[in-house]
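Researcher: Here's my situation. A collaborator sent me these components and asked whether they could plausibly form a single complex. I don't have experimental data yet, so a predicted model of the whole assembly would be a useful starting point for our discussion.
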Amino acid sequence: MNDFRSLRRPMGRRTVLQGGASLALATAFAGSSRIAEAAGGKVIIGAFADGGLTPFKEKIIPLAKTQGFDIQFLEDEYGVTLEKWYADAKNAAGQYDLYLLDDPWVPQFGAADLLEDLGAGGIDAGDSDWIKSLIDMGWWPPQTGPRVAGFESAKPKLICVPFVGDLQTLTYRNDVYTKGAPATWDELLEMGKAGVAAGKIKYPIVFRGVSGNPIVTSWYPIFLSYGGEFFDDKWKVAFNSAAGKAAADFFVGPLKQNAPPGVVEFDSDQEGAAILGGDAGAIIQYSGNALKADDPAQSKVVGKLDFGVVPKKEKAIAQIGIFIAGVPKSAPNKANAIAFLKWYCGAATQAKLAEAGSIPVKRTAFQVPKPGNRLIPVALKQLDSGALPRPRTPDWAKVEELLGIELNKALQAGSGGGAALDVAAQKVTEYLTQMGYYK
Amino acid sequence: MTANLAAVTAFRRRAMATSLARFAVTSLLLLVVLLPIYWMVAASFKSNPEITQDATLYPHAPSFDNYRHLFSEREFGAFLTNSLGVTAASVFLALVAGSLGAYAIARFRLPFRLERMVGLSLLTLRIVPPVVILIPVYLLMLSLNLLNTWLGLILTYTALNITFCVWMMESFFREIPVDLEEAAMVDGDSRLTAFRRITLPLAAPGLAATAIFAVIVTFNEFLFALVLTATPAAMTMPRGTATLIGRIDTDWASMSAAGVVGALPIVIFALLVQRHLVRGLTMGAVK
Amino acid sequence: MRSARRARLQGAGFDLALPYLLLAPSVLIVLAILIYPLWDGLRASTQFWRYGKPLNDIGLDNYIALWSDPQFINSLWVTVRFVGLSVAIETVLGLALALFCLREFRGIRLLRTVLIVPMVITPVVVAIVFRLIYASDAGMLTAFSETLGGTPVQILGEPLRAFLALVALDVWEWTPLMFLILLAGLQSLPSEPFEAARVDGAGPWRTFVDHTLPMLKPVLAIAIVLRAIDAFGTFDQVFVLTRGGPGEATRLISIYGYDTAFKFQQTGFAAAMFVTMGLIMLALALAAVRLLRRAGPT
């Protein structure tokens, strides 16, 4: 492993003062030193612990080192990172050069104007090799779609670039779904039940039921496939439409009945254990756990898991949730960070990323002859067939929370999905009104 | 004669029953306290698959891998150093400032009973849960650019510790009769010299108890560390341990080892200073 | 001559200034780090914050909005239930333990030493210990259940069970503290009343109710108040154990405040929440002190 121990000595009081003085001096000569460092140098990356970054950590960071980039990779727990990075950027504390954000956080950082304009920094967003739906998420305000109050006429700036593609796909047991990925929800449940009867699996499906982000993420592809729309283009709540309610009722009813009994508690770990341990027939998940399917140390059903497009009701749409990289305005090694991003987003590096097993963000990289994971071609298929990000608003965290609470209650009860949506809709509307969305 | 024998036997039987009951209760209590701790220690020697998939009752192939991982890849050495340094500094500062202030409150009578007001305000701050001033302190450190620094943590912890250091030391000082100091002053000592030569040594047990209490509270502090620190440059042990509590891809093995490493220093410390610890904890209540 | 007089006056001046000088360091640090931020927080609580900046002054609107926020009310209610249940159990168990340990017996030293451990272990680690017990996939309860041929045990996913699990954690962690305080209290009681009662032929239960309890009341009261106040601010353990979930079952007010401030970025609203929480605590503490004074030692 990289030996950065010497670089990360703890700071004593005197060291802080001395460090502060030398930092002041160094900043005075910032101009000249920046040019010298532009070809490589230190980059401090902040990331949250997620299996989706393992290929990057293991294969790309060493590669970056050969290019002269000195990467310091600071990992923290997901639940803590948003607060920490936001505080770091707002405080201009300069602890990080690069954040590997979860894409719903982009509006929050964008609205507070904390990130560098990467387009002006030299990253070409017009490159046709970008997967359109992914690069679109890096703009604030978003180029298409409704805009949050106060940003209606602002000129969109590219403040983030996609870092590792990730989206939901279907993972299924090929000994249960022998004709390939189940095309519809009904097929998924029917053939799943047959699989249970045959003793091959215990439950047709597994998902995350914990209140908040997990349950809303689990429900989202079902909601989208039923034709649901979250907000209309005036930010009015639309998820409690007939389609939405049907999706919710299906979710807390038939879907729950065919899932493990503790699903209300499940988060990534438990749903992963269910599919990898052989108990579940199918799961819609991000690549993090999917990447473990072929690893005999982590999966008890190696060879029996295949990937496909999510099932449909009217459409088959998955949720996109990518790692997206932004550079805070207070980054201590800003030029290095941007140089690193340019190198990283280049087709060559992206191809290497695909070979290492992560979903890349440039189209040509998807077409490498030997992708590191069977998931990658399927991911491209899903992206092209239909994949949507979450609504681009800085208040998404609260909205997701409010919805998650109601959905979780309904899931526990095993019924009342539609009613839960109505309650959530009312709360979300109240909250958004308070925040000045409807003028 | 027979009556006596019967009485003695009955007494002996009751005594045996009592000690049997005592033994049972004691064993049960020891089990309740130690079993959870055993489980975490055992888990720290297992590997992740063994914990999640095999669910063994004891480590089948114990290894120190998790601990090695913590110190070489997870910066726990830095967390430990930060914790020790920050705790030592803030407890020391709080004791010094707090003892001086407590002495003033215990011995002097200021206009408008000012000293009593100060004492009461500090006590009030002690009562209010620290979470109440979490955001304001965060905003303060933010404006002073002291986020993620030792200095920021030390200032915060010193302030928090002073609130109860003053309160505790005040009652310890009051226990020491004023006559002793006055005798020394009559003999020519100044107030401060009397304080140093007479009062302090007598208050030493109280100082010890207060210090121990402060060390434990400061070392274990999490909330402010969570908000005020971000990188191994300043993260304390509890804060560092929290990086492993994720619900995605929970690294149970590392988490357990982190728990052991996080708890060990303070448990050893507490066991070494048991007597003073007990005194400090109970003194507030039994007056 | 004049210099001697001056020296005496200076000496007198120093003596007058001494208490202020002694108090200065404490007062200054506390003013700077605690009082000033508190004032800042009060100001923030009267503003509407958006995107990390105060936008406008809205007076007491945040405070009013607080009481119509169902999540705040819920978290208040959860906290009250948590504190009430935990402290009650801790007091009863602590008292029982103290009575049990009143007289020396074999193993009491070991017991007392071991009992210290739960309350000094970092609360974050205590939560880790209990997560390792409760986890439905990797936990001790599941391991025991599966060894005996059963199914995985679900605790943290079911709201009521998660709540009780949290209470159990708190009881495990803090009963020793109550035990120590009450033991010290019991040991400090004068023995004459008990001698007299025994001579009068009173049984153990009678002695307890008529003599022990009343004399122990002040210590009991202080212990309960102190513990309750600390319990209200419980954060670390919940943060690590359940993060407030499932749903809102264990969302104590400290967790909700933290989320409001840092996850939803509603800085002003969260500040109002914490100030309210502090005022509630103060009110409770004052009420407790008033009760104590009125009860008094008999």
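Model: Some features of this prediction you could bring to your collaborator: The CA atoms of residues 129 and 236 of chain A lie 34 Å apart. The domain at 35-166+321-388 of chain A is CATH 3.40.190.10 (D-Maltodextrin-Binding Protein; domain 2).
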